[in-house]
Amino acid sequence: MFIAIGFMVFGGILGFLLRKKEFRNISKIITILIWLLLFILGLEVGANPQIISGLGNIGVEALIITFAAVFGSAAVALLLWKYINNRRKELHEE
Questions:
Q1: How far apart are the C-alpha atoms of 52 and 59, rounded to whole Å?
Q2: How far is the C-alpha of 88 from the C-alpha of 82, rounded, in Å?
Q3: 30-57 confidence digits (pLDDT tens)
Q4: pTM of the model
């Protein structure tokens, strides 16, 4: 866990230091890396017999949590979008 947090902090610092440098195709590289990580995660889950044997038990709970997370994220994103647009309109009216 601390390793993951350390990588995030290191990436943030590196991004801050290189913020003026333009990186071409970085979004494509990030997308490919995310797909690769998801594939490797799928391999790990599929190879774990405990997860596979308990899939029926945790399936409904995972589905409920997934829908709640997606709905919650979308709701908060919509509220944030409306807030930002309202602030923009207020600033342009002044």
A1: 10
A2: 10
A3: 999 999 999 999 999 889 988 888 878 7
A4: 0.50
